[in-house]
Design goal:
The structure is a homodimer. Chain A is globular and about 60 Å long. With about 300 residues, chain A is of the alpha+beta class. The relative contact order of chain A is 0.14. Chain A is built from 11 helices and 10 strands. Chain A has one domain (about 5-310): Coproporphyrinogen III oxidase, aerobic (oxygen-dependent coproporphyrinogen oxidase, 3-Layer(aba) Sandwich), CATH 3.40.1500.10.
Amino acid sequence: MEISRENISDWLKKLQDSICSDLEQADGGSKFEEDNWIRSEGGGGRTRIIKEGNVIEKGGVLFSAVHGATPDFLLKEKVHSNLAIAKADQANSNFFATGVSIVIHPKSPMVPIIHMNIRYFEMDNGIKWLGGGIDLTPHYINENDAKFFHGELKRVCDKHDPTYYPKFKKWADDYFFINHRKETRGIGGIFFDKVNEEISFEKNLNFWKDVGTAFAPIYVELINRNKNKQYTDKNTQWQLLRRGRYVEFNLVYDKGTKFGLETNGRVESILMSLPKLAGWEYDFKPEKNSEEEKTLNLLKKDVDWINTSG
Amino acid sequence: MEISRENISDWLKKLQDSICSDLEQADGGSKFEEDNWIRSEGGGGRTRIIKEGNVIEKGGVLFSAVHGATPDFLLKEKVHSNLAIAKADQANSNFFATGVSIVIHPKSPMVPIIHMNIRYFEMDNGIKWLGGGIDLTPHYINENDAKFFHGELKRVCDKHDPTYYPKFKKWADDYFFINHRKETRGIGGIFFDKVNEEISFEKNLNFWKDVGTAFAPIYVELINRNKNKQYTDKNTQWQLLRRGRYVEFNLVYDKGTKFGLETNGRVESILMSLPKLAGWEYDFKPEKNSEEEKTLNLLKKDVDWINTSG
């Protein structure tokens, strides 16, 4: 099949359909509602939101495909190491970007928050790249779940290149880091961007599609493992504080959020990532030897989830 | 009395004492707890936090006085229009900064959120300036309260200079603006910075002290006017969404917060500004002709609160 922007965005739309269907089934209570929107400068999106489900309290599975004059920030960036592109070329170039973004905030503090994004970008002058990632933010870290989650991501990576998992796992650790707290957002996952230059675009596209396809079965498994666990008010209070940290990361550090807000993106789609409720408590310290303390102590970079747990 | 950094920071400590005492009395239920902290590079602070009061759900009145090598960002900034300072001079300069910062989140959606900050900055080479402001974020805008609030601020300003209120009111409108929402954080107030260069420092210091002193009586009056008003679950839901916007402003735009987080400031003191609970709802639209819609429609710049209301 020819690789074209139309083929890629059609594939993403189908992925959005199948993920929404899998999540509705796993939730068993609520359905996605759809908002179609148009970008005045070109393109638009299909935002799907689910709320007040049995499992999912608030979540979104978003598709978008936008195009137009390439934004300044991209023209300034050195995008390719092995392509010499005249500035003049870039200045006249239009861009096309398409992707699927997901954030799911579950109701139960025992079910982890998940985030996925896969994106494709091209310019008229031939530059194109793929990026994406999946990362998990458990309110309480369960080491078996962490091992399963990272094991599945490693399996997807290893199928394509044995160097991918260690490289993209580290990238996620570094990216999903709340610097002012000196803690990671969650247990990380994989993150990658612009990985098409040294090898074939087709190889990368296959890997990238496999990441998108891996999302639903991984998260449905994590939902099923945890959705029936009992929890207390204390667990819910802790969930609110962890969600507060999630808000801090997204508003202070997340590049997609910052870029979207600065470039007049569709605010409601960008900020669908924020939870229904989040909390802050001055100088909160978890009790000694509590589950909350255990989780806090594990929110750091470079944990080998596959080999140290379980 | 001689103007010195010691005198100014002593004055600020006494202001912190008297504001805490006035707020405890107005609350009638809870007391401030104090945290003293030390900054490794020089100086420290006295953080006072109140929570779960009759009126105040979560709030802080913070004093700090820090010193050390002048941060890079300030050396790069052109700080004085009428002083020619050799770069070499600046590079060798130490700084001293002291201030009081307040954010109060009330429990009742009928009582407004308030923020105040006054700050003094000097460098060893003789550069010094004052800055500050007070602004109000009602969950529901009451036009009589808005008229009272702005009227009081105008009175403080007019006592010193008739140009201050219009200038500093506009500054607040421009500063407390959530650009991605195209709405102001609340009804503004006054905001000023580096206002010492064209007139005498002493004149400015007197104005600045009057702003600090005006805070408690203004807010206590607003508490007393509103604390006994009835409210519903719908009002509380709306309050959560307004607090969500407050979080967005503070984490995305507020310069003090950004600077603090980027320069390894004391996170718990910086983020005391965030509420106990905040909420987000996808694409929330208030009902037609509701109080919520009325408030949203008033969240804009350049409203003449003194002359159009009441």
